[in-house]
Amino acid sequence: MPDRRYTKTHEWVTVDGKVATVGITDFAQSQLGDVVFLELPSTGRKLGSRETFGVIESVKAASDLYAPVAGRITAVNEKLAAKPELINSDPYGEGWILKIELAGDAPTDLLDEADYKRVTEASAS
Amino acid sequence: MVDFGGWDMPQQYTSIRDEHFAVRKVAGLFDVSHMGRFRVAGDSCVDFIQRLVTNDVALLVHGHAQYNLMCNEAGGVIDDLVVYRGSEGFFVVVNAANREKDLEWFRSHAPADVEIEDRTFELGLIAFQGPRAQELLPCEGVDLDGIPYFGFGHGDVAGIHALISRTGYTGEDGFELFISSDQVGAAWDAILEHGRSAGVLPAGLGARDATRLEAALRLWGNDMDETVNAYEAGLGWTVKLDKGDFIGRDALQKIKAEGPRRTLVGLRLQSGDIARHGAAMSADGKALGIVTSGTHSFFLGYPIALAMVEARSLQAGDRAIVDVRGREARAEVVKLPFYRGSARSLSEKKESRHA
Hints:
The structure holds two protein chains of two kinds. By secondary structure, chain A is of the alpha+beta class.
C-alpha cells in the first residue's frame, strides 16, 4: 500500500507514480457523521494546492474540500453520487473522492501519520 | 457532542440514519432530560396558567396533557410547552433554551398563592418512540392501552417508578417517561437491553430533528420565536380566543381577523443539498422568505425543509429556489406533514377537535 499523507483540513492523499488519490480521513468522517451529499468538480479541471474543489455535506454541517496537491483531475468517484455513505463506511477505500495527475513533484509539505494524529488529538479535545 | 440549550448532547449514538430508521420502524430511545420541567401548584393555579397560555387548560382533567403556546402581548411565541394536569396542580415541560426565561415569566406573573418549582434537575425525562414502543416497553402496574394520546399514568418501568405519558416529538406512537434523576439511567439501560434484539436503538439529536421535521412539529428558535405569532407558525389550533382573557389575546384576535402576513410551508429539495435555517428562498425571481428548519431525511430519501414565506404566495406543487451557499437549489412546495407516523390515528382524532 502506498504511503498515506494528510492535511490539517483532514484530507488524505496517496501517490502512485504521477497520480494522487484523494479522500477525507476517518477522523473527518466520524466528526461529520452520516454524509448525505457531495458537490464535486468535473474531470479535467486543474486544481492548485489548497484550492477548494467541492463541498461535503452531513446532517451536522457542510464543509469545504481542499486539494492537498496541485494538478489536473483525471477521475471523480462516481459511486459517491448515489452512495455518499461510502465516505463513512470506507473512507480510505471505496470512499475515495478524486484522482489528480500531479502538476509537479510529489508534495513534501503534507503530514505523516504521527503528525496528523497530533492534529486530531488537538481538535478532539 | 454538541451544545443544545446549554446541555452537552449527542448528535448521534451510532448513526443518524440507523437511529432514524429505528424510530420509524421499531422504536428509539431519546434522552430529553434537557427539557425544563416545572411544577405549578396553588389554589388559583388554573386561572394563573390559563392567563399565560393560548389553549384552554380548564378543559384539562387529571391524567391528561395539552400542547400550548405561551405568547407575549403582541402574540409572538415566547415558548411552546406541554401542560400536564396532575391531581393537584400542573406540571409543565418547556424548551431547554427557554427554561430560565420561562421560569422568570411564570414567577413574574404568579399571584401570591401559586407556587412554582423547577424540577428539571430532580427528574429525568426519556422518550421511547416508535410504532412498536408500547409492545417493547418493559413495564408493570399500568394498562398502557388505557393511556390515550396526550394522556398519562403511573407505573413501573423495569421496576422503577415512572410517570408514563403518551406524548412525543417524532410523529410516532410512544411514551415520555418522567423518572427520578438517580434512577433514570438504570431505566434507560433496561429499556435498551429489553428491546435490543427487536432493533431498539438509543437515538440522538440528529434523529430527533429529522423525525420531528418529517412530522412538521415546530422547533422553537428555528420555526418560531417571539417575533413569530401563533397563526404564522401554523399553530392557530392551539389558540382559544373564547376561553377568556390571556396574554396576547387581543393581538391574536386581530391577527386572526386580518389573516397572518406569513405562513410556514414544506419544501422538498430536488438535489442532495440541505437547505438550512436562514437560507433565502424565492420563486419566479421574487424573494418570498427564509428557510426555518432543514435536514436530510434518510427515511424519505431526500432533503426536507420548512420555510416562513409571505402568506398565500405558494401552494403545494409550486416550484421554489433556495439559496444554498450561493447556489440555486431547486425545491418543490409539498403538503405538511412530510410523513405521518404511527401517532396518526390518535392525533387525527385530536386535530379534528381543534379544527
